[in-house]
Amino acid sequence: MKFYDFKARKINGQEVNMEDFKGKIVVVVNTASKCGLTPQFKELEELYQGYKDKGVEILGFPCNQFAKQDSGSNEEIHEFCQLNYGVSFNMFEKIDVNGKNAHPLYQYLKNESKGLLSKEIKWNFTKFLIDDQGNVVKRYAPTVSPLKIKNDIEDILNK
């Protein structure tokens, strides 16, 4: 399986094929609305605005598995992200990223780029960078600022 073989539902219920992002650089991130790292939405949006015209997409996946920090409905999460952070990048329906009910996309991402000591997602705002060929290039810890990913995006754009 490759990144392009997966599907997910946007926060509005529309099914999206990851194949739709072929030829683009993609950042996949599990998000939460009530987390100390929630202000990263601002930086994710800044990253998206700065690079969307160069073929960069950000895919946000709300997750309630870490201290129940995203317990709202998909509609509430969507409204929160837009009102508080002006999020315009793609947000998807709430999913599990760990355990037996983990979304297949996240099962794939974790196998392709393991974290420190374990492949499991440790917290909200773990980020994965996928190149324009669909390869998982790098995994970033939750505390890594989205803006720190710029250099790695630039490296892919300039190759």
Automatic annotation (TrEMBL):
GO terms for biological process: cellular response to oxidative stress. PROSITE patterns: GLUTATHIONE_PEROXID_1, GLUTATHIONE_PEROXID_2, GLUTATHIONE_PEROXID_3, THIOREDOXIN_2. One of its GO terms (molecular function) is peroxidase activity. The active site is at residue 35. Keywords: Oxidoreductase, Peroxidase. Gene3D superfamilies: Glutaredoxin (3.40.30.10). Residues 1-158 form the Thioredoxin domain. It comes from the Bacteria. Belongs to the glutathione peroxidase family. PANTHER family: GLUTATHIONE PEROXIDASE. This is Glutathione peroxidase.
